[in-house]
Design a protein that fits this description.
Chain lengths: 185, 795
């Protein structure tokens, strides 16, 4: 868990943790908005972290570049939504390519699942997803599992355990934060 | 004295002063040799075991939109982390209840529609109107036969099915009251029950209108009609009908025909009324689905709008008023606050509308609707200024200039469209970014509600994207209704054995995750690969707008027959029943399985043998929820676009739990482990690429022959390589023997099986010796129902 001092606070350079959709989520327990350094620390501490990638890797080459770097740092990738194609072209061997995020989430909700590599995941990073779609998955995991979920997309995701703030206005800042995470791993 | 005579033959002699009231005369039954199955007119409990079997394998998934429940006054309650509320319900069960409620709404919409139509049709044509669907249709009502155990011969006979359907919807709705069901699995069973009921309601509605209104009766080559934004000739008065019930659009078409005016007017429709209107009169046209409502009205194209029911914008009257377009509401489901003028003379109604005394009226008298609509449209047309659509150039500049880049619109938009970026570029004179939004915008108008500067954002998008909008104009092949029995005879075996790789049923709404073009691309991929593609509703009209480089829509490129490479448009929402009907007929006509009240056996047959997959790329409505859930109970998996996750629930199996994947094999009399095919009953995908691969994957069935499995795997593997960049992770689990492997890739795949999965291969014969979950057996006869196993093993 992030300590209070590691959370994004007022006065820092990060934009507000504004929801990606004002009406989409009515949550009693919202994600802790975190700085990239904190994300890096959590990933380093995790026993079996995994990065799950989605649609926007087909639209934003920078996200592919970031995912490849995560892979290079030893973080395995579960590729969904066709994001496997650019990743494979860039030398990544995803743990799976055909299962959708919906399926993956259903598997992760089951404490008996050993993951694609034989041991249960304890921390899941999400990159490149349609926000309303990812939101339902994070909600399921929040309510019905103990998994640590971290949304590192440009949207603040209240249902995640940890999330970047809302970076929609400043894509360059989002990319810089992703690089910062990578630097810390 | 009152006494009741039971069914039978009675002789009455020498009676005096006796009044005899005859209820229903039951004629000597025409021979229906099918035995009555175990569940005619099933109640909630009758198919519960089947549901529980499905739900044991396809476990419900819940992704709540909100953590709270506020349905009663003991709350609101915080149910987060699966806590219980004041009534004792936990989060999971409360979400299952919500799904059951959504399915009740959907089923009620179709069933009330059916009742409305049926009552009018019986009033107009009499209850003895025979159900005559032509010489190619013997199984006239497969859903009703299967579910209710009734073989309707006349329109009046449909009432019995509808009576049952209405009563079941009420029973399920009752179960959602506070303090009832405690088990989320049982709520899912109820959702499945009411989803199944929905298919009966839809079938009643469409059979009734096909018979009474003489709509096409399963002919594959129905006419092609104009579809899209650019269909109307603006030099003529334009009458637009909106909604899902053709009952009041029909008199308008009749009146125009009778008066010889049909060519002097434009009669066009939005949503499923459009589908049914062109089935009735192919001179009418289709504008598009719900997201075209504000496009068409804001453009000022209609001279009058006639609304009926279901997917109509709730602010339709306000939108029409803003453009000076009168509205006639015709359905008691959507009176829109308008005065009921049924008892007033036509001239008085027209005068009040044209003087502006009332923005519209409520009428449900067909003849009056027609006369008022036509006369008002003529006059409004004369008065209308023929200016630029949406905005003038100056107005556009003024609107764009108002934007403060607050981004409220972005965080309200269901797709988070970057309206802010479009406005910023627009201020500099570059409208390309705004224009590009037309492709994705569903014109819901939420952005305008939140904009602090009241910018007419939809008008800005449509004005700048006008070329894209107007270019979406093409042809739709008119809905044909059901599939012929003769077609089923031809394709039943190749579907069940797998030589026709699958049936893709593209059904549902328009809340697409991306550009509309994707729906065409997805369906064409399967048409080219000679799957059977069936469509209805919004998907069916959207593909009628999208042309290729040669200017052809899919309807112009592919034939309308139910065969490999065919594209079948069944028609409107209620025509979805015929897609379920085609699946049911495969079990009946090809496999000779009895239908009469024999639901579970047929659903079990479908699940294990019929490679049909539902596909709803942009679901939003409650009707889509109930239709899909009804398909699921019938054993048909459904893939939805990402918005489908907002239904909160999915049914997803776990391939990695071998104990979940078994059948009883009637031939070997053994319980057999099987491959997880299909491993989903309903789940969402995020992209076009993922949709294509999942659809091919979900066509696999345990009963596939080697040739069939080889064909299905060939498509699955090729599509995965094309769209995902690699072979799918799970392909080995679908291999039963070397004969299942795609021919072109056989050596490579055998090598992968040996090296990466440890299978034993005899390379001299290129034969798999060890590895598969099970061997292929030509006589394999799978079921997951004990009673079906007993039925066929104890013969």
């Amino acid at each position: 868990m992030a300590k209070a001092s590691e959370k994004v606070s007022k006065g820092e350079k990060f934009p507000l943790a504004k929801r990606f959709q004002v009406a989409d989520i009515q949550a009693s327990k919202e994600a802790t908005a975190v700085k990239p350094e904190v994300v890096a620390k959590m990933v380093k501490r995790a026993k079996n972290p995994v990065l799950v990638t989605g649609k926007y890797l087909l639209k934003e080459p920078k996200l592919v570049e970031v995912a490849v770097k995560f892979y290079g740092k030893g973080i395995p990738i579960i590729a969904t939504g066709g994001s496997s194609k650019p990743l494979i072209e860039n030398g990544v061997k995803p743990q799976s390519v055909v299962f959708s995020l919906h399926q993956i989430t259903q598997y992760m909700l089951d404490p008996e699942w050993k993951g694609f590599n034989g041991q249960p995941y304890d921390l899941v990073l999400y990159l490149g997803f349609t926000p309303y779609y990812l939101s339902r998955m994070l909600s399921a995991l929040k309510h019905f599992s103990k998994l640590t979920t971290i949304a590192i997309d440009e949207f603040y995701h209240p249902h995640a355990k940890f999330s970047f703030t809302n970076l929609t206005k400043d894509k360059e800042l989002h990319y810089a934060m992703l690089e910062k995470v990578l630097e810390g791993i | 004295m009152v006494f009741e005579l039971k069914e039978g033959i009675f002789v009455l002699d020498d009676l005096r002063n006796v009044s005899i009231k005859i209820g229903k005369v039951i004629e000597e039954e025409e021979e229906w040799t099918e035995p009555v199955g175990p569940t005619p007119k099933p109640g909630i409990l009758d198919l519960r075991n089947w549901d529980h079997k499905l739900l044991e394998r396809y476990e419900p998934f819940y992704g709540p939109v909100q953590d709270f429940c506020n349905l009663c006054t003991m709350g609101p309650c915080d149910l987060s982390m699966n806590k219980k509320g004041a009534c004792g319900i936990d989060l999971r069960t409360s979400k299952a209840r919500l799904v059951a409620i959504a399915c009740c709404i959907g089923a009620a919409a179709h069933t009330a529609h059916a009742r409305h139509l049926l009552n009018h049709i019986i009033e107009e044509y009499g209850e003895d109107l025979p159900i005559d669907l032509g010489s190619n249709i013997n199984v006239e009502a497969p859903n009703i036969r299967l579910i209710c155990g009734i073989k309707p011969k006349t329109i009046g006979d449909l009432r019995e099915a509808l009576d049952w359907a209405e009563s079941e919807i009420v029973k399920v709705l009752h179960s959602t009251h506070i303090g009832n069901e405690e088990s989320y699995i049982d709520y899912e069973s109820k959702a499945m029950h009411v989803g199944m009921v929905d298919h009966v309601g839809m079938e009643v509605a469409d059979i009734a209108q096909m018979v009474a209104y003489n709509l096409p009766k399963a002919e594959p080559d129905t006419p092609l009609v104009d579809t899209g934004f650019g269909i109307v000739d603006r030099t003529k008065p334009v009458i637009i009908v909106v909604g899902h019930n053709v009952m009041y659009a029909r008199p308008v078409a009749d009146y125009l025909e009778e008066k010889g005016l049909i060519d002097q007017f434009e009669l066009a429709g939005l949503c499923c009324t459009a589908h049914d209107m062109v089935r009735y009169n192919s001179k009418a046209k289709i504008f598009g689905p719900i997201y075209y409502q504000l496009r068409v009205i804001r453009a000022g194209l209609p001279d009058i709008v006639i609304s009926d029911e279901q997917c109509i914008r709730s602010d339709l009257l306000e939108a029409c008023k803003a453009m000076g377009i009168p509205l006639i509401a015709t359905s008691d489901a959507a009176c829109r606050g308008l005065p009921n003028r049924n008892n007033d003379p036509v001239e008085e109604i027209i005068k009040d509308i044209l003087s502006g005394k009332t923005p519209g009226v409520f009428l449900d008298d067909g003849e009056k609707i027609a006369e008022v609509a036509i006369k008002v449209a003529q006059e409004i047309f004369k008065r209308k200024q023929k200016g630029e659509l949406f905005l003038t150039e100056d107005e556009l500049k003024e609107e764009v200039k108002k934007c403060t880049q607050c981004m409220s619109c972005v965080f309200t938009c269901p797709h988070n469209l970057r309206i802010d970026q479009g406005m910023a570029a627009g201020k500099k004179g570059d409208y390309s970014k705004l224009a590009a939004l037309e492709e994705v915008c569903i014109a819901c108008g939420k952005c305008e509600q939140t904009c602090p500067k009241s910018i007419r954002i939809i008008n800005v998008i449509m004005k700048t994207g006008y070329q894209s909008l107007i270019s979406k104009t093409g042809k739709t092949r008119v809905g044909r209704g059901m599939v012929q029995d003769t077609e089923i005879r031809n394709v039943g075996q190749p579907i069940v054995f797998g030589q026709i790789p699958g049936v893709i049923a593209a059904v549902g709404c328009i809340n697409y995750p991306d550009v509309m073009q994707d729906i065409r691309d997805i369906l064409e991929e399967f048409l080219k690969r000679r799957y059977i593609v069936v469509t209805s509703g919004c998907h069916a009209m959207d593909i009628g707008m999208l042309k290729d480089e040669e200017g052809q829509t899919l309807y112009e490129k592919y034939p309308g027959n139910f065969d490999a490479g065919g594209l079948v448009n069944t028609g409107s929402c209620v025509s979805n029943a015929h897609i379920a009907g085609a699946v049911i007929k495969i079990a009946n006509i090809f496999a000779m399985r009895s239908l009469r009240g024999n639901y579970a056996e047929i659903a079990d047959y479908t699940l294990n043998r019929v490679g049909a997959v539902g596909f709803s790329w942009g679901p939003y409505s409650h009707k889509a929820a109930s239709i899909a859930t009804g398909f699921n109970r019938l054993g048909v998996p459904v893939v939805v676009g990402p918005h489908g996750t907002k239904y909160r629930r999915a049914y997803i199996g776990k391939f990695w739990k071998p104990e979940k994947w078994w059948v009883y094999d009637i031939k070997s009399r053994q319980k057999v482990s099987i491959e997880p095919a299909p491993d989903i009953l309903i789940a969402a995908v995020e992209t076009k690429e993922e949709a294509i691969v999942q659809l091919a994957r979900l066509c696999l069935r345990p009963n596939d022959t080697s040739q069939g499995r080889q064909i299905k795997l060939t498509h699955y593997l090729e599509l995965s390589q094309n769209y995902l960049g690699a072979l799918p992770d799970d392909w080995p689990i679908y291999v039963r023997s070397e004969a299942d492997l795609p021919l072109k890739m056989k050596d490579t795949l055998l090598k992968v099986l040996e090296e990466e999965h440890g299978w034993k291969i005899d390379w001299s014969k290129k034969k798999i010796l060890e590895g598969p979950i099970r061997q292929f057996d030509a006589g394999f006869n799978p079921t997951i129902i004990e009673e079906v196993y007993d039925k066929y093993t104890k013969k």
